Amino acid sequence: MKLTLKIWRQKDAKSAGKFVTYALDNISPNCSFLEMLDILNEQLIEKNDDPVVFDHDCREGICGMCSLYINGRPHGPDDAVTACQLHMRKFHDGDTIVIEPWRARPFPVIRDLMVDRSAFDKIIQEGGYVSVNTGGAAEANNILVGKENSELAMDAAACIGCGACVAACKNGSAMLFVSAKVSQFALLPQGQVEAKQRVKKMVRMMDELGFGNCTNTYACEAECPKLISRSNIARMNREFLCAKVS
Amino acid sequence: MAELNSKTPKGPLSSKWTQYKDHQNLVNPSNKRKLDIIIVGTGLAGSAAAASLGEMGFNVKIFCYQDSPRRAHSIAAQGGINAAKNYPNDGDSIYRLFYDTIKGGDYRAREANVYRLAEVSNNIIDQCVAQGVPFAREYGGSLENRSFGGAQVSRTFFARGQTGQQLLLGSYGALSRQIKLGTVKLYDRHEMMDVVIVDGKARGIIARDLITGKLERHFGHAVVVATGGYGNVFYLSTNAMGSNTSAIWQIFKKGAYFANPCFTQIHPTCIPVHGDYQSKLTLMSESLRNDGRIWVPKKKADAEAHRNGKLKANDIPEDDRDYFLERRYPAFGNLVPRDVASRAAKERCDAGFGVGPTGLAVFLDFRESIGRLGKHVIEERYGNLFQMYEKIVDENPYVNPMMIYPAVHYTMGGTWVDYELQTTVTGLFAAGEANFSDHGANRLGASALMQGLADGYFVLPYTIQNYLAGEIRVARMSTDKAEFADAEKAVQTRLDKLMSIKGTRSVDHFHKELGKIMWENVGMGRTEAGLKKAIDLIRKLRAEFWKDVKIPGTLYEVNTELEKANRVADFLELGELLAFDALNRNESCGGHFREEYQTDEGECKRNDEDYKYVAAWEYKGEGDFILHKEPLVYEEIEVKQRVYK
Question: A21, B4, B396, B493: which has the highest count of C-beta atoms within 10 A?
């Protein structure tokens, strides 16, 4: 395949960025999107240019590190995959592909396509857990969880924290990410004790960090590589309201 | 050759750990605050240890090269975690889990460590459930189990095909809670460059901030390395791109012995290699072997026709299929351990029965189970794996059988540790895949998660405390000390040297070359001649690397090529040690298969008389390693030939 790439290049957080165009030839359709970028980088190194910096690690769609905004969509044109699991067969010979970093105020660009997502860690630190110390946990089967709720909790817990939801949202809202964690624990008996505090603290931190509000467009759900449902947002709103009024 | 002391407690096997805990030294709460612990790596072992030690009141600093602790590669583990709960009432017990693990490891693991692992396995499940890990449930609300290789009981707990993710998010949550409370300080996008030793004890690390490129000095009363395995020495593996050996290689150079480097695990069920540009291999969980049947055509002509695209798998009649695992190993069938399954697949492909365009693949077929259970059941059990397969290969595995081939997955070898997980450097500990301790020559499925969390939640918090009890009078040291300055200077010199080469070939070029040498000569089948050749080739490649590697950019910026170069430089040394160890071990056991040593049926031929020991290597200089032996003594278990027939 022959491709034209328009890639966002930015030296560091302080420098101004711009799009740079690259031509690439002989790409196999079985190549993954990141492998295509590897090939580009090999060519750039050959020419003494700086390779394009992008975050990636597991390359099997689970670590959540890759974060490319491809042709106007987080993780590109395929549904329910991360950029590392996107293959070039989803494009056509001769295509022009535009690659940008996640764009959201709480995710500042570090270099090129690499952004700082530590805001997500900060939200989790507020209460994205059950406060239980190591040791002294009760026998596991003493806590029974109905299969339906357990499956719903797992659906929510499948979030990989990549930030595609924020990148997709016109408001830069993190509601899908936060609600997935809130929902996981709201659905499980283990999460009940701290439920009210959890949702209040996590939402407060989300607001403090500058994430936008939800206006029910659901671009987040459409672009989520793990198909996290928007019903989690509804559940979080209910949890939040109950916590505030009680 | 000195013998190593494992410091295994005396007394009957089943009470050693209790005895240890009852008599170990403790640190009182006011002293805990004054003691600093450095932990490198945020996978299951690292994050669990950091959280637990933080909860206890120690001051913890934790480091990861990724942008968040949640990215560590433990997250990619799919199938499950073992525990001896015996919920299915199928006869499981702590002893049986212990026994299966020792046998699975081909009698090359330390008895006392493995028993302790089995003993705490049940606590892990309790702990994770209390944290809200969404394990699979039965309709009545109790926990569900499934089977994994090397066991005749169902003892594997799971969260769909994302068990590692859910366990890691559990320990990441616990870690996040401590970060919020201020007991743990997180350094993300930081890479450990070296350990600092003061008066014979580990007292800190030199780390590089991967954003600014600056070197930093960090003090700790103790240092824990939990940086995972070294599978990426093969270039293509199921490891993450950033997984590396640098931390355990640097401590090796500072005196921490490296044990059994040749014990590497080739996982039987991975998506086959498809092109030169390929950057990694994707695992298809072992759990698939619960319901999938592995086969190749019985007739060579059929295999050839499939390779040429003239025959489809579904058109090969039942009678013409060779379910070779079921044929060779009727007692365990498709659920034989990984090393056995991998070699059997290689044997069939080498004999000309391989399928797919390259001939290096076998079928993993769900037709029978879909017929028996219905598609919805298979979808519920393995949906995400089937989806992943379809995305990568562009074929529907519900209709056509999957094609799979073995790939490098895990390394049983690692830093030598004693019963307390302490290395041969005082105050320096190694946990999880980074150490060598529990899996012998082959790890059973669903045991890596168990070991990572056992080390992190239930072993290190005790054993480190036992060490630190003797350090309470040691005040925090200034990092202006000469030892820190010298260590930093050595790192700086190495980085300057890498940047100054300005050669003509990229880092990936060297990494791929190394991978080829390793896979061809030090992979699934090893020979004396091949290993000697590999050592020679690696030495030449390493010399070339230091003359001709090309790294663009500068030291003081985000420089991903420099990060890679630094890691590949270490792989180029480790590869040699790996081959060296494989050459020394004149036997076949577990994942280490020397073609000269096999039975008439092609099974591993162990040599217990000469090699029933842990090979712990000491670094003396580049390419210069000295062997130390830790004899393996089996008090509880009768050492037998491993039979899965």
Answer: B4
pLDDT at B79: 85
- The answer to whether B339 and B606 have CB atoms below 8 angstroms apart is no
Is B140 part of the contact surface with chain A (CB cutoff 8 Å)?
yes
A residues 116..175 contacting B (CB < 8 A): 116-118, 120-121, 124-126, 128-135, 137-141, 143-147, 150, 153-154, 157-158, 160-161
Per-residue burial over B44-76, b if 16 or more Cβ lie within 10 Å, else e, is bbbbbbbbbbbbbbbbbbbbbbbbbbbbbbbbb
Mean pLDDT over the full length of chain B: 96
The CATH number covering residue A41 comes to: 3.10.20.30
In chain B, what percentage of residues exceed pLDDT 70?
100
Q: What's the Cα-to-Cα distance from A140 to each of B13, B342, B363, rounded to whole Å? A: 26, 35, 38
User: A129 and A102 in one domain?
Assistant: no
Q: Is residue A158 located within the same domain as residue A53? A: no
**In a shared domain, residues A159 and A50:** no
CA distance B306 to B529: 34
Mean pLDDT of B18-32: 97
CB < 8 Å from B in window 170-189 of A: 184-185, 188
Nearest-angstrom CA–CA distance, A204 and B396: 44
Given the residues B338, B348, B567, B642, select the one marked as catalytic: B338
Domain boundary among A111, A141, A173: A111
Task: With CB atoms and an 8 Å threshold, state whether A128 touches B173.
Answer: yes
Interchain CB distance below 8 Å, A124 and B173: yes
Q: What is the mean pLDDT of residues A113-137?
A: 97
CB distance B444 to B101 below 8 Å:
yes
Over 90: is that where the pLDDT of B187 sits?
yes
Residue B498 has pLDDT above 80, yes or no: yes
Question: Which one of A111, A136, A164 terminates a domain?
Answer: A111
Bridging pattern class, strands B264-270 and B402-411: antiparallel
CATH number for the domain harbouring residue A195? 1.10.1060.10
Task: Report angle CA B126, B130, B133 to the nearest 5 degrees.
Answer: 95
Radius of gyration of the CA atoms of chain B, in A: 24
Is B443 annotated as catalytic?
A: no
Partnered with residue B224 across adjacent β-strands are: B39, B429
Q: Report pLDDT for B1.
A: 45
Structural domains for chain B:
267-409 (3.90.700.10), 482-631 (1.20.58.100)
How many distinct structural domains can be found in chain A?
A: 2
The predicted structure's pLDDT at residue B2: 52
- Smallest Cβ–Cβ distance between A28 and the set B277, B391, B550 belongs to B277
The average pLDDT across B392-398 equals 94
- Among all chains, which residue has been given the structure tokens 């995972």? B228
Strands B36-40 and B59-63: parallel
Chain B residues lying within 8 Å of A153, measured CB to CB:
132, 134
Q: Is the ipTM of this complex over 0.90?
A: yes
Same domain membership, residue A234 and residue A131: yes
Interface of A with B in 58-77 (CB under 8 A): 58-65
Mutation to test the A interface, candidates B56, B78, B121, B277, most A Cβ within 10 Å: B277
Position B347 scores a pLDDT of 93
Residues A148 and A227 in one domain: yes
- Per-residue pLDDT, averaged over A48-59, amounts to 97
Domain of residue A185 covers 118-245
> Do residues A40 and A145 both lie within one domain?
no
The nearest CA of chain A is from the CA of B561 a distance in Å of: 8
Amino acid at A73: R
- Based on the fold, state whether residues A94 and A135 are members of the same structural domain: no
The predicted model gives A108-115 an average pLDDT of 98
Are A200 and A122 contained in the same domain? yes
Mind listing the pLDDT tens digit for each residue in B45-91?
999 999 999 999 999 999 999 999 999 999 999 889 999 999 999 99
